[in-house]
Amino acid sequence: MKIHGATLFQTFKYIVYVLLAMNIYWFFREESTAAVVQFANGVALSDLIEAYSATIDTAAWVVLLLMFELETYVLDERHFTRLVAWSLHGLRAVCYAVIIYAFFGYVANLTTLYETVPLTEVAGVCSLLPDSWSWAVTLDEYVAVTAGN
């Protein structure tokens, strides 16, 4: 059995695409968990970009990458009709707009961090128990305050 370089290269590319799609899922899972803490009353439509900025940003980049693959490898020159070309350009413009919009979600997350204030009336973290309080381990990871921690 002989493996051609072009076949190996295409297989590698599609494995990378699958890994990027998995990355989108992992971002979504992490941000969904964080959204429960950040947005206790649920994520409003206006807060969607703040809650899921990394997921939306990554998805737009992957779609953009897949579009470049479509334009440079998958579609033959004869498939580039006026409608196809305009559709590809329009979708590309939407992806760029979503990427820029996701930047505002990152800024909103950063702004939320700057709005934190110390709880001066709390003598110690253990005094917050039995209420449900959490502390931020990372930007999108929260851990409930328990007697153990």
Structural domain count: 2
Low-pLDDT segments: none
**How many DSSP-defined strands?**
2
Q: List the helices and strands in order.
A: HHHHEE
Q: What is the rounded Rg?
A: 22 Å
Tell me, briefly, the overall form. elongated
Total of DSSP H or I helical runs spanning 4+ residues: 4
Biggest sheet architecture: 2 strands, antiparallel
Helix content: 55-70%
Q: What is the average per-residue confidence, as pLDDT, rounded to a whole number?
A: 86
Strand order in the largest sheet: 1-2
Q: Give the strand content.
A: 5-15%
Measured distance between first and last alpha carbons: 58 Å
Structural class based on helices, strands and sheet pairing: mainly alpha
